[in-house]
Structure formats: structure tokens, C-alpha cells
């Protein structure tokens, strides 16, 4: 049960992910936005004067004149929760300092994703990994404050249907994933238009490694004996990813092939039914940002499409289509996730909602 209203802040508030945080949080039922942070270039100025606002909705009235601060403990220790949309080159020490100042930090950056004591949480799958938070705090001598990371945006798209398939049909053996990733995934201003218009760029630095590695941690469990992750050690799963940047503004598409470990293979119809039936803890505990339907399965032959489907349920779920058999894999399908919503800001906010509802804040 909720104790009341939580004071929250946003780091990197002027950026691509930060702007989505603002839209999620300015009118939230139990988070009250009290602090905004960005670089020293923006600090000391009104939010509306320093942000290159790129959203269709206007900057909320209550946020327009809020002063942007430097991302220091001094300005954020009043917060119960801080959402971080900082780049990885600056996120590490700032997030760590806030954790040590007893703040619960929900980060989009990659810095702590591989830390064995930091849960890597996709809120549509594995909020159960919060059980490792007491061990994180104990290791640092903290009674309050921790870091929770959310996953890379293309990992998030892939791993949601994988979790649903594992739950329904048992361990997976092989997954091959090829992405078509939106430009907004690289922040603002992103790639120069002359590099991405009329083009596909078949390389996104360290993205393939993130997709392959993060999947193991997210689908793994937490060992009750030593409060550590098992990184899916009991699973035969091998993941192979290929990542491409395409001229789409928002919405990452992933074409996936999956081989099941079991000798008895589900049919495409059974797969579609299992994906549609999948539910998650964020829904069960009543997180306000949780989608009604975690996985929307499209029957049309030419869906999902980024322009048509990325904003379904405010981008809080994922969309799957083209579920079919395959000569190499048992099943293949296409998944679309909104990279700046469930791939970034919505994940962090939903993670924090579940943490608050389960008494971790
Ligand atoms: N875009 C996505 O789809 C996506 C998805 C998942 C995860 N992520 C991750 O989310 C994070 C943010 O990405 P983004 O796309 O929002 O980046 P972005 O648009 O480049 O925004 C970066 C933000 O960081 C601030 N900043 C830069 N240097 C700083 C410093 N030295 N101290 C404090 N603040 C500083 C910027 O403030 P100023 O305006 O003052 O420069 C801005 O608010 C990254 O770690 C990224 O990998 C992004």
C-alpha cells in the first residue's frame, strides 16, 4: 500500500528520454515532480528556455518555469526517487552519489546494468528481481537508496515476447534477432540527416552485445541462497543479434526467430494465444503506467508498423505480428516497441511505481 506522495526528480531532463519523463510525471497520481537536472550549460535557467522540446504535446505549464539544476546531491537529496536520463559518460558517479544520499535511482544508462547487485528490470517481466535490493544496500552499508537499471531499448522489445514464450512453453534454445532501430534511440540530435535519410546503417556501437547479454540477466532468476542472479545459467539459450539504424523517428522493430528446447513444438496459433494471454506483476499490483495488454498480437499480414502501432497504449506494451513457422527456427515473428516509452522513460516510471507499491520506496 502506498504511504502517500513521493517527491521525484529527473536527471537529463532536457534530453530525448528526459522530455518523456516530464510528460509522464507532471501529473502522476503518486509521484510529485520537484527537481530537474541537466548539464552546467542548462543549470540555473528555466526549463522552457534551455530545452529543445521535440514533443507534440506542449511543455506542461507546471514545468515550464521550473529551474534546471546541476545533477548534484545538493539539488536532489530532497527526492525519494530520481529518474535518470543521463548519458553513460556522466551517469555513473552522479547516480552512485545519489544512491549514497539515500535516493532510489531508476536509470536508463548502461553503467550499472552488469553490476551483479543492481537489478536489470523490464517492468513487463522481472520486477521480482527487486528481491536483490536488500543485498545491494547491505553491501554498501545503506538502509535507504539503491540503483535499479532498465534495459537497452532493443533488448526490451525482444525480451518481452521471449519471457512470454518461456513461461508458456519452457526453455528456449536459440534466438536470432535482427533489429530496425529508430533514430531517436541515439538521442538528440542523433545521426546527421545525410547519414540516415534514404539509408540503412548496419551498425550501432555495442548494441548487439547489449541485446545478447542483457537478455540472460533479465530472463534469469535470483538465487535465494546468496541474493545473486543466476543469469539464466540453467537455460540452454543462445542469443544472436544484428542491429541496424533505419530512417524511422520512434519505434524499434525486431525480426526474431526462436527455437524451443522441448521436442514438442507449439504451433503458430498456440504461440499467438500464449503471447496474448501473458500478464505481468506491474498489472497485478495496479501500476498506473502498466498497459492493459502486455503483448498486442496483430493478425494483419503487414503489422506491426512503427508509425501505426508505436503509440498504442501510450507505448507501454509491445506489438507482435507475423507469427509463423520457419524452416530453421521453430517460430518467427516481428516485434515493435516504442524505444522512448517502454524502451526508456515508461520502463523507469513503471519500475518505480511497482517498487513503491511493493514497499521498496
Ligand atoms: N533515446 C532512447 O531511445 C533511449 C532508450 C533507452 C535508453 N536510453 C539511454 O538514456 C540516456 C539518455 O539518452 P537520450 O537519448 O535522452 O540522450 P540526450 O537526448 O542526448 O540527452 C542527454 C541529457 O543529458 C544531459 N547531460 C549531458 N551532459 C551532462 C552532464 N555533464 N551533466 C549532467 N547532465 C548532462 C543533457 O543536458 P543538456 O541539455 O544540458 O546538455 C540532456 O538532458 C542514455 O544513457 C541512453 O543510452 C536512451
From TrEMBL:
Residues 7-133 form the Semialdehyde dehydrogenase NAD-binding domain. Pfam families: Semialdhyde_dh, Semialdhyde_dhC. It catalyses: L-aspartate 4-semialdehyde + phosphate + NADP(+) = 4-phospho-L-aspartate + NADPH + H(+). Residues 299-313 have a biased composition (Basic and acidic residues). Its EC number is 1.2.1.11. InterPro entries: ASADH-related (IPR051823), Asp-semialdehyde_DH_CS (IPR000319), Asp_semi-ald_DH_pep-lack (IPR005676), NAD(P)-bd_dom_sf (IPR036291), Semialdehyde_DH_NAD-bd (IPR000534), Semialdhyde_DH_dimer_dom (IPR012280). One of its GO terms (molecular function) is protein dimerization activity. Catalyzes the NADPH-dependent formation of L-aspartate 4-semialdehyde (L-ASA) by the reductive dephosphorylation of 4-phospho-L-aspartate. Mediates the second step in the biosynthesis of amino acids that derive from aspartate (the aspartate family of amino acids), including methioinine and threonine, the latter of which is a precursor to isoleucine. Belongs to the aspartate-semialdehyde dehydrogenase family. This is Aspartate-semialdehyde dehydrogenase.
Amino acid at each position: 500500500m502506498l504511504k502517500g506522495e513521493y517527491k521525484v526528480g529527473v536527471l537529463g531532463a532536457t534530453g530525448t528520454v528526459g522530455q518523456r519523463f516530464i510528460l509522464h510525471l507532471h501529473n502522476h497520481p503518486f509521484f510529485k515532480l520537484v527537481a530537474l537536472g541537466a548539464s552546467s550549460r542548462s543549470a540555473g535557467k528555466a526549463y522552457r528556455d534551455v530545452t529543445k522540446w521535440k514533443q507534440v504535446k506542449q511543455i506542461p505549464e507546471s514545468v515550464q518555469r521550473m529551474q534546471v539544476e546541476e545533477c548534484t546531491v545538493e539539488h536532489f537529496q530532497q527526492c525519494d526517487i530520481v529518474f535518470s536520463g543521463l548519458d553513460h559518460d556522466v551517469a555513473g558517479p552522479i547516480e552512485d552519489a545519489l544512491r549514497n544520499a539515500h535516493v532510489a535511482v531508476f536509470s536508463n544508462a548502461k553503467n550499472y546494468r552488469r553490476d551483479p547487485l543492481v537489478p536489470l528490470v523490464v517492468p513487463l517481466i522481472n520486477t521480482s528481481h527487486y528481491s536483490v535490493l536488500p543485498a545491494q544496500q547491505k553491501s554498501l552499508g545503506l538502509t535507504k537508496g539503491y540503483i535499479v537499471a532498465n534495459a537497452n531499448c532493443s533488448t526490451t522489445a525482444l525480451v518481452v515476447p521471449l519471457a512470454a514464450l518461456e513461461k508458456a512453453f519452457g526453455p528456449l534454445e536459440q534466438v536470432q534477432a535482427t533489429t530496425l532501430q529508430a533514430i531517436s534511440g541515439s538521442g538528440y540530435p542523433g545521426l546527421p540527416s545525410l547519414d540516415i535519410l534514404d539509408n540503412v546503417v548496419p551498425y550501432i556501437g555495442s548494441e548487439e552485445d547489449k541485446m545478447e547479454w542483457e537478455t540472460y540477466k533479465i530472463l534469469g532468476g535470483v538465487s535465494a541462497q546468496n541474493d545473486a542472479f543466476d543469469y539464466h545459467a540453467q537455460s540452454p539459450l543462445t542469443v544472436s543479434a544484428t542491429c541496424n539504424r533505419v530512417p524511422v523517428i520512434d519505434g524499434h522493430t525486431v525480426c526474431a526467430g526462436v527455437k524451443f528446447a522441448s521436442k514438442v513444438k507449439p504451433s503458430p496459433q498456440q504461440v499467438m494465444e500464449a503471447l496474448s494471454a501473458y500478464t505481468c506483476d506491474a498489472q497485478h499490483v495496479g501500476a498506473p503506467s502498466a498497459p492493459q495488454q502486455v503483448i498486442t498480437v496483430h493478425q494483419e499480414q503487414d503489422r506491426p508498423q512503427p508509425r501505426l502501432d508505436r503509440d498504442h497504449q501510450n507505448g507501454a506494451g509491445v506489438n507482435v505480428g507475423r507469427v509463423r513457422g520457419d524452416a530453421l527456427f521453430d517460430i518467427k515473428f516481428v516485434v515493435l516497441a516504442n524505444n522512448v516509452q517502454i524502451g526508456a522513460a515508461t520502463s523507469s516510471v513503471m519500475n518505480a511505481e511497482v517498487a513503491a507499491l511493493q514497499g521498496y520506496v
